[in-house]
Amino acid sequence: MIKTVQRLEFENVFPEEELQNILHYLGKISKFLLLDIIGFSNTREQKNFDNFFNNQDVQWDIIQRVTKYGRENQLPEPPEVVSRESSLRLAEIILANRETLLDGNSNDDKDADEINIFKAFLIINKEVNEKQNFGDAEENIDKMADMLITMSFSSADIGLFSNTDLEFGKLLYTTIVKFEYLLKFLQSSEDYQYLEKALYENFKEENIEGLNAQVKLLLGTILKMKFDNNYKLVPEKPEHIRFLNTLASAEIDESDDFTNLKNYPFYKIDDATFSIIDYFFAVDKFFKSVRFILKDAYNTQHNLPEKDGSFFSFYNMQFSEEFLMKRVLDDVFHQKYIVKRQEADTRDNEPDYYARHNNRIYLFENKDILVAAGIKSSSNIDEIKKLLKKKFLKDGSRAVGIGQLVKSIEQIVNNEFPFDHYANNKNSFTIYPILLVSDRIFEIMGMNYILNQWYLELVRDKLGENYNPSFIRDLTFIDMDTLIYWLPHLKKKDRNFKDIIDLHHKAMKKVPNINTPSIQEGIRLANKSFYNRLSPISNRFSEYKFPFNLLVDKFRDVLPE
User: Fold this and answer.
1) First to last CA, the chain
2) Strands (E), 24-162
3) Residue 384, class by beta-carbon neighbours within 10 Å (0-12 exposed, 13-18 middle, 19+ buried)?
4) Is 346 helix (H, G, I), strand (E, B) or coil?
5) Spatial distance between the Cα atoms of 162 and 542, rounded to a whole number of angstroms
6) Distance CA 49, CA 67 (A)
7) Distances from the Cα of 446 to the Cαs of 345, 381, 527, in angstroms?
8) Residues 6+ apart with CB under 8 A from 285
9) Phi, psi dihedrals of residue 546, rounded to the nearest 5°
10) Which of 56, 88, 299, 438 could form a disulfide with 368 if both were Cys (CB 3.0 to 4.6 A apart)?
């Protein structure tokens, strides 16, 4: 269900006090608590205003203040103080100002610690809330989609749900799979040896096998730590400390998108102790972030300037599309009777992947794109939509993504498709257009809905009277992680993928007939309808049970029984 909870701000709780700079409050906190708060976002059951303090007099005063604010403003739900985003922002500020806050810190007052860290969270909440101020949005599906995209886009890579265990397990498994594919790609050609060398040397390893073992050992350890609700790591062996040192930095600056925390997701508390700043950032380091290590090596090898983007064209085509996507989709459509893309005299508008089973056609366009931190964290729906149209619909005069899918549909409908001659002999094909993305930040509520509206507008315009929704299906928008995660199920029967897509499309279109005399019940039903229609495809297959032994198998060669 769609549920909004207000984050408390300083003025809500302490209206009589003059607000100071956040460093004023952090400067009154002990070094022990400041260090302990780094990694706090990883823990379950975050504290709130009603259980924050050990001093019962202070706790009672805060409860009375918040209760008064809630009553005066008629809050439907209890407000919150701590969120994962606010915890990460607080950790970033502490690390960026470590000399001021940590060096020579002799503070030692537990009551002062608690009230000042509480006030620091309230100050950060105002900053977060301002990014999500939507004004008086109309209660309709399009406005709701815009709102949910704006709310989720900046924080989609730190987990979208209060309980992140399932999301994290999915991310961990799919990251290992993608990392293994990346290593195989780098070893597939002598031309890539310099990239392979740059990767393992960046992590102070002597070869790619050593790097692979360290990564798997660390990820297996992180999985256990998350299960134990722990975020402090004390490695015993020198080689493990050496590896972790490459993941921690002595210099952290504040940034729009936690960029520095993503590059260095560990903090070295002392010579023997490391704190995981964020579980998701730690795992992402070994796929999303390594491309930038490879980019530096590529630019050096080809004598290119630092800001040259040629590497990303190479990486997106040679690895993301031709290597990773092809192998994953070949696993999905592994049956011998599935017809794949045929060779043609032209490559104009060639689909990135094509599969046909009898009269059912799957068209894929693959997009591995980067989002500038400023846009990602802007919470500006106009800027986000501008980016989406450029990357997924039309870039200048060039059709991309959705535009390419519609062109292929036109060719099939007009019997002019050069990549499957059989498709030119009939007019009764059911076509499933699928936009596949590499980054899970796009797999959020409202995204498939918005992109499908653009797709429907374009395909109806291009096909005219030849458009038939019974044969030309809606757009399916899916991320690579979800495909990999579902692969054990998708491989079992050729119709399993189709069934999930059909379920997704049905849910996107379902508009309930709300007939109730109760306003509250009407709101609840409308809210449920919004949730169902705007959910990404990854939310549809809730009954799926991932075979956990596949994850365990990934660690058998590095972890003891």
Assistant:
1) 41
2) none
3) buried
4) coil
5) 17
6) 10
7) 39, 12, 14
8) 247, 262, 263, 265
9) -65, 130
10) 438
Half-sphere exposure of 477 (CA within 13 A, CB side): 26
Whole-prediction pTM: 0.89
- 343: alpha, beta or left? (left if phi > 0; alpha if psi -120 to 50): beta
Q: Given pLDDT bands bounded at 50, 70 and 90, which one contains residue 496?
A: very high
Q: CA 485 to CA 537: how far, in whole Å?
A: 13
User: Which of 357, 354, 326, 451 is closest to 411 using CA atoms?
Assistant: 354
The residue behind tokens 């630092």 is: 306
Measured CA to CA in angstroms, residue 428 lies from 340, 360, 463 at distances of: 18, 9, 15
Q: Which residue has the tokens 């990854």?
A: 538
Percent of the chain residues past pLDDT 90, beyond the cut = 61
Mean pLDDT, residues 324-337: 96
Q: Which residues contact 232 (CB under 8 A, 6 or more apart)?
A: 39, 269, 273, 274, 275, 276
pLDDT in tens, 255-307: 777 888 889 999 998 888 999 999 999 999 999 889 999 999 999 999 999 88
Cβ(79)–Cβ(135) below 8 Å: no
SS3 of residue 461 by DSSP: helix
Contact 287, 175 (CB under 8 A): yes
Q: How many CB atoms lie within 10 A of CB 372?
A: 12
Q: How many CB atoms lie within 10 A of CB 181?
A: 18
pLDDT 10s digits, 212-271: 999 999 999 999 888 888 889 999 899 999 999 999 987 777 777 788 888 999 999 888
Q: How many CA atoms lie within 13 A of 148 on its CB side?
A: 28
pLDDT digits (tens, 9 = 90+) for 459-468: 999 999 999 9
The rounded Cα 463 to chain-centroid distance in angstroms is 34
Long-range contacts of range 44-50, CB-CB < 8 Å, 24 or more positions apart? 44/163, 44/229, 46/80, 46/82, 46/83, 46/84, 46/87, 47/81, 47/82, 48/78, 48/80, 48/81, 48/82, 49/8, 49/13, 49/79, 49/80, 49/81, 50/78
Q: Check residue 137 and give its pLDDT.
A: 41
Q: Are 485 and 173 in contact (CB under 8 A)?
A: yes
